[in-house]
Amino acid sequence: MFLLLGTAAMVASPVAASAQIAGRGINPRYVQEAQQDHPKLVEEFGGAETGSRAAYINSVGRRVAAYSGVSPGAYRFTLLNSAVENAFAVPGGYVYITRQLMGLMDNESELAFALGHEVGHVAANHAQARESYAQRSGIFGVLGAILGSVIGGGFGSAVAQMATQRSQLATLSFSRDQEYQADTLGLRYLVSAGYDPAGAAGVLSAITRATALEARVQGQDSRQTPEWASTHPSA
């Protein structure tokens, strides 16, 4: 549930923030689960920062969330004291970004897009849809494995393996579609909130440069595909 790709120019019609603030809420069950998991997530990622930087994250997050169709008050934005470049959200409206990722950014529009992307995941109920899709794909994979065992032999093994691979690829493709939608929503929120849409491309470039640098430090091929590209559209 990480960042971005939608680098194409897109014009979104601004919507009155007052109308969006009165938006829908989030399923109380997801909110309760997010509240329960929050302390464990914060501890796992080195704790949460407080003070002016945390307040800044919250301010920018609420500004873009005002255009998500969900009440901005339903979201909680947390700055994690982690050296890992990441941002993610959980269905209950808790959005997290690490200080390392924030440190790669040059301006507020880049931060706004990163947070807007994660807000988009929550607003579009992506976690629930992904879980449901993965379950259906898993069932098809199991059925294929059963069919392969019934057929038996080398051909049966090939059928079972193909069914498993198709299930995995289908789930990955579904995830990529969700990432593209979150990119589109994030860019829409970005423009509606009055930010420069170039912030989307700026974050992507920063992550790509950081990935290449880390690869060189570790003695790897700096031309390898960045990690975010495995779940994001190629165009």
What would your notes on this structure say?
The protein has 235 residues and is mostly helical. The protein has one domain (17-230). The chain has eight helices and three strands. It has helices spanning 17-21, 28-44, 52-65, 99-103, 108-123, 126-151, 153-192, 198-217, and strands spanning 76-80, 87-89, 94-98. The protein has a three-stranded mixed β-sheet with strand order 1-3-2, with helices on both faces. Helix 6 (126-151) runs antiparallel to helix 7 (153-192). The chain is globular, with a radius of gyration of 20 Å.
Proportion of helical residues: 55-70%
Main β-sheet description: 3 strands, mixed
Provide the domain count.
Answer: 1
Q: H/E element string? A: HHHEEEHHHHH
The fraction of residues assigned to DSSP E strands is 5-15%
Could you name the ranges where pLDDT drops below 50 across 5 or more consecutive residues?
A: 1-21, 169-174, 225-235
Radius of gyration: 20 Å
Overall pLDDT metric: 74
Structural category: mainly alpha
Sequence of strands across the biggest β-sheet:
1-3-2
Q: Number of DSSP strands?
A: 3
